[in-house]
Amino acid sequence: xxSRREKKLTYITIGLIFLLSxxxxxxxxxxxxxxxxxxxxxxxxxxxxxxxFSLSGLLSGPLFGHWSDRTxxxxxxxxxxxxxEIVGNFMYLMGYSKWLLLSSRLVAGIGAGVSxxxxxxxxxxxxxxxxxTVFAAFMAxxxxxxxxxxxxxxxxxxxxxxxxxFVINKYxxxxxxxCLLWILLQFVVVFLTVDLPPVEKRKARDSMTxxxxxxxxxxxxxxxxxxxxxxxxxxxxxxxxMGSYGSVVASSPPRSTTLNPNPSPHxxxxxxxxxxxxxNFSISREFLREExxxxxxxxxxxxxxQTALETxxxxxxxxxxxxGELENSVMYFLGGVVVIxxxxxxxxxxxxxxxxxxxAIGLCMCNISCxxxxxxxxxxxxxxxxxxxxxxxxxxxxILGLPFVSVAQVSLFSKITAEKTQGFSQGIRRSxxxxxxxxxxxxxxxxxxxxxxxxxxxxxxxxxxxxxxVYSYSRLVEPAAQEQMDNSENFx
Length: 492
Prior knowledge:
The chain is about 80% helix and about 0% strand. The chain is mainly α. A two-stranded antiparallel sheet has the order 1-2. A hairpin with a 2-residue loop joins strand 1 and strand 2 (about 165-170). Helix 6 crosses helix 16 (about 385-415). It is globular, with a radius of gyration of 28 Å.
């Protein structure tokens, strides 16, 4: 199988992983509260269950990333992480108690931490100029899962049968459904995924292959010339003649030492190389830098505001518009379509402008949206039609800005942190996002009756992030570009 086909199939598999993560979120979230009610769970228990998934992912992300950096074998890490997804969803379908449900999301969240290894892998296997485009495509896959996920609930809610000792109904069916999908994904990963070499090694390997081919052709040409002159050579050659010309031939090393063939591109990293990955690595030197802090802040604020928005939207629509399950499903579907369109637009835009420009555009939209919501949604004005218009403008402008901020900060983060420890760095970034997904729902859930405080905090966070971006704008570039800028300033 050629390298281009291997890369294509591997990327398809990664896209499926992101897609299934979105589907899992979309099929479990709508029914989990009623499921907990059947198990006599208190209202606060919903927050515990939802936070458990984020908490375990927060802890497992850096571990999976560190493992990926040391071994450079992302395939086996994905296979290992998917086992937690399978076991977690199987525990969910058992549904004996609320504590088992809590444990199931805790176990499944461990598997979700593999995204740090995947982003590290994508960073190593893509060129810097293509990174934002690739990241946008895979992040859009997850949003596609969020869009099509609710459609599966149409037939999952009709399930009513026994699977051995387990009762499969509309509450436990999502666990069975996702368990089967993750099992199928295991086979896809086994047969279609390969550990692609880093971009530099792949280029070096291709260059060596071309060099080998040229030397092979040159040697073949020399042999042809020698064969053509064979008839003109004397049968007995003097020692002087052998010494004068034979020494040249004898001094040329064997072909095996000259060509120095590379090992298989999919072979595991050597122990010496793996031990040197974290040599001279300093967490403070790597992460306590101005530009890194800005991007981690962008990660936190983006996920905090997104999860807070998701938490407050349903109570808000019920209070002011009397939306039911159907209306909310349609709203989430349209919101998912808007987000996917945003990711596709960012994918196109990333080919024409830098990531920091995309980040600035996204923050501008998010700031405008939060100020709009603070003015019009905290205390809606006008009649039903005007209130609905105010709601649509505020919410959809907010979710439209999310792809800009998300893609830009992930791509920039991969460029300004060390490539050798990219998996661990992406794990830290994911942990910051996981912390935000825990705090966001808790903040919004307790302040649905005090929208000014809730939206005010979201606005303050965005304003602070925007000020940080403006102050550090010149540093939000690749290290090579930064060095060129510094050299040009020194020269002037």
